[in-house]
Design goal:
alpha/beta; Rossmann fold; 10 strands; globular; 13 helices; 276 residues; binds D-glutamic acid
Amino acid sequence: MLNNQPVGIFDSGIGGLTVFRSIAEALPQYDYIYLGDNARAPYGNRSFKTIHQYTLECVEALFEMGCPLVILACNTASAKALRTIQQQDLKKNDPSKRVLGVIRPTAEVIGNYTRTKEIAVLGTKGTVQSGSYMLEIAKFFPDVVVHQQSCPLWVPLIENGEHDKPGADYFVKKYLDEALAKSQDIDTILLGCTHYPLLTQKIEAYLPDHIRVVSQGDIVAKSLVDYLQRHPEMENKLSRGGNRQFFTTTDDTPDFDHMAASFFPEPVTSSFIQVV
Ligand code: DGL
């Protein structure tokens, strides 16, 4: 058995860091490897086949680095690739490994945030088209009406470091206006893409005060704490050194490090990885 068995955290780019930060706060004792597929981000507009292929390649790279458990800290990958990976790829390749997503844990609790029972889920095109949030939320909160809004330009703005610049305001307002036009009774906005918390300041500035913005980081972290309590066979495998390693598929690692730096107290030094 490998001595170093970190938790793997995957996203198409830097968005998963919004989840990793919460997980590292809740469970600082474990070792972690973060992998961002920045060279091929965004995933949001890509086909099912491509998202599955890219996600699987990254998950396999994390397995090869010793991770027995991988969190898809990406809604698009959770919506489009998770089920096939869980039901087909893992069975064939390595049934002892586990891959978890972010949609299910979010759907389990999101209904508790709304009083009007109407929420808007903002996500990538892929996540919205999959209808995953509608299906999953209906299982836990059948009385909650779910409106969906895709925000296809938000991830490119974030991946290019433009999210805190004045130019981003136009597209923040545009998609929020479109979302709120769907119903006057929406009181909760779920940021159903792990990149979107980077736009929280601007999003809140364009929303009326009575609308609550919910990010997934703490929700997913709490759900992982719970998962590891229920699965001691997995928890016992995980190595405990508090080490954090960062890998990115872009060869511009200083760019990744710069963007990642705002998430953690210590500087981030990432390494380039080729997953194909
Ligand atoms: N962070 C990913 C998500 O949660 C962004 C997907 C993309 O690359 O478009 O959906």
